[in-house]
Amino acid sequence: MPIGLSVHIGLNQVDPAAYDGWSGELGACEQDAVDMARLADAAGFDVTDPLLSPAATAETVTATLEAAAGRLAEGDILFLTYSGHGGQVPDLNHDETGDRLDETWVLHDRQLVDDELFELFGKFAKGVRIWMLSDSCHSGTVARRLPEMLSPEELDRRFSTADPAEVGRKIRAMPQSVQSAVYRRDRDAYDRIQNTRTAKDLARIDASVLRISGCQDNQTSSDGIVNGLFTATLLEVWRGGAFPGSYRGLHREIVKRMPPDQTPHLFQTGGPNSAFARQRPFTI
């Protein structure tokens, strides 16, 4: 019988010492992780205790995913969620053909580069399904420009303010100024991470990975009072398990309910499994 494991990461703040004095305070990311763990438990997954703020270090996240890879075999499934800030570092191994920036998860003690995440996925056996939700964004440039991109009415509706500094505290993107300062200070470490890893498009990932991110790469994900906007919308669509459709159907219904400047993105990578996206969400 297939096994289902779930891992949930949520950061309402990071270590300022690791991010040039920036604490990255958010309001709803820990609750996102707790609610996703609760959903997974109801669906029959073996749930790892959520990794919240100080517990969500690069070492702990890496070890947790490596342990999951050691347990899962063909036909099993990993449900992985991340809620927190997204960041970027310059792409050194030329696996990003567009903006030449690698995306990151902003963990408590350092950024986890997407090359690292793909390398971890490469440790999973052929035929394992990985279902990942990432309620974060990756463009500090867009975050800085958001007040210019939205009307005053939309700013007020989404954020109850038109103050750029206040908006910056309500979206899940590391500010560009912090990204630059952290990379200048820790460049050797981040360069070493990339230079010791195979480019993503060359990495062999035998597991089938299906991901919905909270927004497109050139958009931002909104924080919230209880949940982030993406996570809250997913829970609304899922309706405690009453949603009758597939993963693709879940994505379509979430997009319908989201504002035009935050469009969740679904994509698949890794080992071919055309049936995966047509399955019922959260099915072991």
From TrEMBL:
Transmembrane segments: none annotated. GO terms for cellular component: cytoplasm. One of its GO terms (molecular function) is cysteine-type endopeptidase activity. Residues 18-266 form the Peptidase C14 caspase domain. It comes from the Bacteria. GO terms for biological process: proteolysis. This is Caspase family protein.
